[in-house]
Amino acid sequence: MKRFFSVLAACLFLVLPIFSLASCGGENAVAEDDAVEYRGTINVYNWGEYISDGSEDSFDVNAEFTKATGIKVNYTTYASNEDMYAKLKSGATGYDVVIPSDYMIKRLLDEGMLEKLNFDNIPNYKYISEEFHEPYYDPTGEYTVPYTYGMVGVIYNTSRVSEEDTGTWDLLWNEKYKGDILQYNNSRDAFGTAMYRLGIDVNTTDEGEWRKALEALAEQKSLVQSYVMDEIFNKMESGEAAIASYYAGDYLTMSENNEDLAFYYPEEGTNIFIDAMCIPKGSKNKELAEIYINYMLSEEAAIANAEYICYASPNTLVTESEEYIEYMGEDWIALLYPENFDFKTEYDKNCYKSLPTETLNMLNGLWEELKIDSNLGAWVYVSCVAIIVLLVVWGISSFIVKKRRSRYY
Q1: Quick one: CA dihedral 146, 302, 59, 65, positive or negative?
Q2: Which of 50, 97, 242, 397 has a 20 to 30 Å separation from 233 between CA atoms?
Q3: In whole numbers, what is the pLDDT of the chain averaged over residues?
């Protein structure tokens, strides 16, 4: 009997670690044969066009995750950090994983809106490069796992924009291209374009400095065709617009559909950002969410995401992969991972940081001021046209009535 229990104990000693690995996602992807079947659904809230989704024969990350674990994924998207924040702040519950940018993460953390992570369920965190550990927005490194990073630049259509006009933020204010320029439809990025151009600290709390940026955006608005977020893809790929500021990774995606597009990082400086995976406060599926985050760091999923969305990856399984480097090609790798680029120093100098509540309220007011002025201008224009049309119709009607009367007199 003792021998039986000894053998049983030895078997359990060998078997339990296997189940433990399967339950937390393993060191890489959860192998389908060894997967533990979980019950439940997680709600993932992410940027649009920001995961390998099976289109164009790509690896379908969410479908493969469900196949490996049994956990279903309800996946929805947002267009900006501000949209995501407003949704969470409004009391929307049920989200288990969100992937905001650094400055928004800091705001969520300061307002007590994030859960601490149990890294026992995220063993693949060891593949995150050291320079991304404990960033300013999560100084203890307990709440976030980096997903991607990158820089903002200027996209332009080489068939319609002179090369001599490129290189700086001035291109977005060049009157030669009136009606061909797109601007961000979110306050932080739009103001950022003006502030980098003017040499203003993008994290200043000085209202006078923000008003200088507002004046620059007000000067620009008559040149702007549209304020956009995800709509930029169609507009730039189709040639409907010729100039826009956007993220380097998205430029690479657009350039595949329009070979005339080119890109540069403005000389004056530009935003450097990190987007990271977090769990909102009150998640009812925290463990399952951590298993999902771990899966996103696994080799197959991480490489598939990096290849599909074309953003730089903080994951060494990606950056050290020959398959990934060959797939992306030298030019794209050079754009995403600039040589001799001190990421830590440049990031600390150029990233957006969470602003004090007073500054945020002031920024929101300035943004509304800009947009209201823009809408008012459009309304005045439309009203004038409508009045002219009505006057013409009234004149023609009066003429017809007079002519009819003349027949009887």
Answers
A1: negative
A2: 97
A3: 87
| Pairing verdict, β 41-47 and 72-78 | parallel
Task: Report the helix count and the strand count for the chain, using DSSP H and E.
Answer: 15, 9
pTM given for the model: 0.79
- Residues 290 and 249: their CA atoms lie apart, in Å, by 26
**Regarding beta strands 181-184 and 224-228, do their DSSP bridges make them parallel or antiparallel, or are they unpaired?**
parallel
Token pair, residue 15, equals 């078997």
Beta strands 72-78 and 243-247 are: unpaired
For residue 227, give the DSSP letter: E
Contacts of 75 (CB under 8 A, 6+ apart): 44, 46, 51, 62
Among candidate residues 406, 218, 294, the one with its CA nearest the CA of residue 65: 294
Burial code of 151-172, b = ≥16 C-beta within 10 A, e = fewer?
A: bbbbbbbeeebeeeebebbebb
Residues 6+ apart with CB under 8 A from 374: 221, 227
